[in-house]
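In response to a reviewer's request, we include the raw inputs and outputs for one of the modeled complexes. The four entities were modeled together in a single run.
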Amino acid sequence: MPNDETKNSSKRDGMLLILKALAHPMRLKIIVDLINDEDDAERHCTSFGLTVSKATRSHHFKLLKDVGLISHIDRGNHSLALLRRVALEEEYPGLIHLLKGC
Amino acid sequence: MPNDETKNSSKRDGMLLILKALAHPMRLKIIVDLINDEDDAERHCTSFGLTVSKATRSHHFKLLKDVGLISHIDRGNHSLALLRRVALEEEYPGLIHLLKGC
DNA sequence: TATAAGGTTTGATAAAAATCGAACGTTTAG
DNA sequence: CTAAACGTTCGATTTTTATCAAACCTTATA
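The model returned the following structure tokens for the whole complex.
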């Protein structure tokens, strides 16, 4: 059974990944846009107005998915992003509210 | 008068700086330690158990101060860090609570 | 099924951050 | 006042992250 130090440290590691993922202007914009869309609609990856190559765009969405901020529906020639709102609220309570105003 | 887009974007810029500052294991540990110290004591920069050179340590504390997470009292041969708890709670409500558990 | 329209992966390059040693500054102790 | 102790700044290096073009993959459509 892990002691408190271990528990805290692993929890902090997860938080660190989230913070790293958010610490980039494009990725932060994506997440904030998704948060501010109350309808929780699936969004095309191209619908965020990002002015980078598709390779770079793909890189950022993969990163956001890998840390659990979004789920990512891959339909081959069609890529959709969806905020993991409920899961995030449970795992990192307050995170969404913190970013909401941005 | 700035429109919403401008307002949001500058608010997001501030948030981005905070997120970047927190997106490093040492800096996150420093802030979480300060948050979990309910007494809001001033802490020696050496008291966080960071295993880096003093130049690097100084670099991280400067960064945390520059984004407003801590205030930094420089007494020449003595450096103290203090969480800007009230200001942070006002400017980024929920941030401290979010990090508290880590 | 062939082709077009995305998205992803790979490999290379560019940009940003972290790190350290050395030189310097400031305070305190002797 | 001098030396010791500690923090900061500077310059150079290393490590990490971001970026893109090209090749490839997946789906939809003619």
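As requested, we also summarize the result in words. The domain at 4-100 of chain A is CATH 1.10.10.10 (Arc Repressor Mutant, subunit A). Chain A has a mean pLDDT of 92.
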